[in-house]
Design brief:
The protein is of the alpha+beta class. It folds into 6 domains: 6-231, 2-Layer Sandwich (Beta Polymerase, domain 2), CATH 3.30.460.10; 237-384, Nucleotidyltransferases  domain 2 (Four Helix Bundle (Hemerythrin (Met), subunit A), Up-down Bundle), CATH 1.20.120; 393-489, Hydrophobic Seed Protein (Orthogonal Bundle), CATH 1.10.110; 504-659, Hypothetical protein af1432 (Orthogonal Bundle), CATH 1.10.3210; 686-748; 750-949, no CATH class. Helices cover 59% and strands 10% of the residues. The strands form 3 sheets. Strands 7-8-10-9-13-14-12-11 form an 8-stranded antiparallel beta sheet, with helices on both faces. Strands 3-2-1-4 form a 4-stranded mixed beta sheet. A two-stranded antiparallel sheet has the order 5-6. Its EC number is 2.7.7.59, 3.1.4.-. It catalyses: [protein-PII]-L-tyrosine + UTP = [protein-PII]-uridylyl-L-tyrosine + diphosphate; [protein-PII]-uridylyl-L-tyrosine + H2O = [protein-PII]-L-tyrosine + UMP + H(+). GO terms for molecular function: [protein-PII] uridylyltransferase activity; phosphoric diester hydrolase activity. Residues 524-646 form the HD domain.
Amino acid sequence: MFPRPLSFVLGIDCRRVAESLEEPRSVPPSPDKPAPRLAEFIDNPLAAVGKLARQFNEGDRDSLRGALVDALRDNLEEGRQSAREILAKSRNGLSCAKRLSSVMDSIVASLHVAATRHFYPVENPSAGERIAVVAVGGYGRGTLAPGSDVDLLFLFPDKQTAWGESVVEAMLYPLWDLKLKVGHSVRSVDDCIREGRADMTIRTALLEARLICGDAALFADLQRRYGAEIAEGTAPAFTEAKLAERETRVARAGSSRYLVEPNVKDGKGGLRDLNTLFWIAKYSYRVDDPAELVEAGLFDAREFAMFQRSEEFLWRVRCWMHFITGRAEERLSFDLQRQVAAAIGYAGRSGQAPVERFMKAYFLVAKDVGDLTAIVCAALEARQQKPRASLTSLIGSFTKRRRVRALGHPDFTLRGQRLAVIDDDAFKRDPVNLLRLYEIASRDDLAIHPDTSRLVTQSLRLVTPQLRQDREANRIFLEILTARRSPEPVLRRMNESGLLGRFIPDFGRVVAMMQFNMYHHYTVDEHLLRSIGILAEIDGGKLEAEHPLANSIFATITNRRALYVALFLHDIAKGRPEDHSVAGARIARKLCPRLGLTDAQTETVVWLIENHLVMSTIAQSRDLGDPKTIESFAGIVQTLERLKLLLVLTVADIKAVGPGVWNGWKGQLLRTLYYETEVVLAGGHSGIERKARVERKQQALEARLADWTEEERAAYLARHYPAYWLKVEPERQEQHARFLREAEVAGRTTATRVETDQFRGVTELTVLAPDHPRLLAIVTGACAAAGGNIVDAQIFTTTDGLVLDTIFVSRAFERDDDELRRAERIAAAIERALKGEIKIADLVAQRRAPPPRGGTFQVAPEVIIDNVLSSRHTVLEVSGLDRPGLLYDLTTAIGKLNLNIASAHIATFGEKAVDVFYVTDLTGAKITSTGRQLVIRQALLAVFTLELDKQASGKAKAMARA
């Protein structure tokens, strides 16, 4: 907290500090005279230290110091244990934090007594031999988490003296012996005032300074001068600095308060936000206790109760996190969420797991903290703004009437360029005004005055069944949702005020609801609002470079309103026992007519919600070159309009899942599926059409290979089967042709080629080798051993017995040269493995690690064998908990089953892997035998169970060794 180290201020030899940490000087007290207990140190440190000192000869400092450290160590452990019991029994996090602080106070005060009365006593102290030991930072608030730092200020009246140096050293060494993390500074009152003026962090720390022990008059002088020389007249600057600091901190921890692994201390809606609110309020209103904020008019009684509830809950969560991990862990990670939920006592209910109910409570608290932030900012804005003389103040009511007409409704006006109600009864007079407020804000791009947003929250009881059925209210809501100006900010304000969940109760059920997996980054309501924002960007033509197809077809969509409504509702049934797509469609069938949609629009919304995952699933896990895949998808979609709507909805849905989930590769898959299906919907699904497309592709390649002889071109075209021509785009066909020719000229039957693709976010590894069943296993194993994450694989066999595989690996580096070097290492490993120079199984074993989050996630493995999805292949869909080397293990198992893999499609959804293989037996036939299918299913399931058995065995051995 304070940057000047003790070694700088006092000239202490740091080696001595290190030695004290390694070998604490400790001499136990006489066994017949027990050391004082914790209660004695808390109640009367002077008496407790005196009692201990009487067990030793006067002047025996080393023995007393050792006995004191031992006694304080025992008392520190006892204090932590009592704090944990308070947390478990009373379930009050603030009480736990205060207990830990009081225990620390007793330790610091006891060391002060020992240093000033027993180690370095002064009978007639001079004016300079005075010291105040002051808690600052979080400790200054009288609260400590189990793993928190202990921030201390050693305050002196003037220049440091030899006595002062000795006292500080005598207090710090035992604190280090106790393995405490101590942040400390040594300053005079003048130092504090000077540095507090210059440094906002020090100014904030001094704002919360609290005297623990020592010279009270010295501390009172610091407080007086702080108020007069630092705080006076600087509240606006302090507020601005603290809010700017908050923005920086929140951006670093994650800009949304609805991140599914939030930072409880520094994240948006966390404890630091509450601290910031109180710092600003204390600095501006000169209050010492949060309860005084009600008297000051900043909060009403309900809002202050919200402040207290939020603070207690966040402290409860934070203390449990520290106790469970044994360290100062501030990120509420997935593995911690289950443990904290169990510790607090959450149980499952209504289809939600205990951890999901706990996290919903957490996010609702984070939302409350956001509401309190808005309230404080509004109050400070009103307090700090000075009325300016203007024409408006002279012509008064005339200007007021003109503003009313400009806003379109007599119940609304402008206050400081912010939209506000004319008086506090505006919503009571007409509850539709609750919706009308946001309609005007959306239409005129106006910020809503915080006082008015606060009034909305206080008026939510006016949202009755009658208002929900009101035609005008529903018309307004639909206008807000589908506004040409991006509706996301207005919908977000409605959600933060609580109006959105009240007006659409089914949306209210998913507010702050998390999905306990590694795929989704946000709560359900946050995901829905972000998806609407992305849709609006596509609608406005702002994402042409990133989503060229979605951008180009949007203008041709006729059901724009249905698309917005469907996207807003597509996950609204999450958290229910049944399939959320089916339940969501049922909700939409009831809600859409209420919103004013026609029967046809309602049916479109219902269909989109029922099928909102279909296009993504097929694109990522099916062979898009298989005619049966396209025909089946076309049968689901049926019309070109639905295909357009589903494509745009799918893009917005995936992109709103979280950072890094969308990439160019997924975009390419969706575009391929769209274009292939468009042909079928246009009537071009016959074999004649496919034959014509193959011929066109071959002619296009011939034109690109103009430098080849006619005989060379004809021979090359004959090397590929029709599937190759349909699946591979012309640019890559030319690259393949020249790659194969170079390999032939060099006399190589095994070769590799690498190329990066920034737009799609992948790196291509092309492998040429003689065909054999375990080829893909070798390639995937080499990728796994080199740390390559495979996202897809295209596998083609030539008519002369070679295999041309293209493996798509997700990028690891931004720069192409770095990525190419990495890809070349992977390619080299593949070639060496194919030549038998290295053993892939050993390399993969070296890279193996426990699955993500160890025992946090449970994904039941499943194997689906399907002979309907493809006309030529059996489709194996394997899903389960992802881990390094999983794809290698699966392809190895498939190779041992004597199956040929025609194509592989790899998708990962957080902790869940879904890998799909199109296979035949060695004769090229489908797997139709029930007995053979059973053997395949058991072998692939064993890939997951054997790994779990290995991990369990490893854990057992580790425990036995321990």
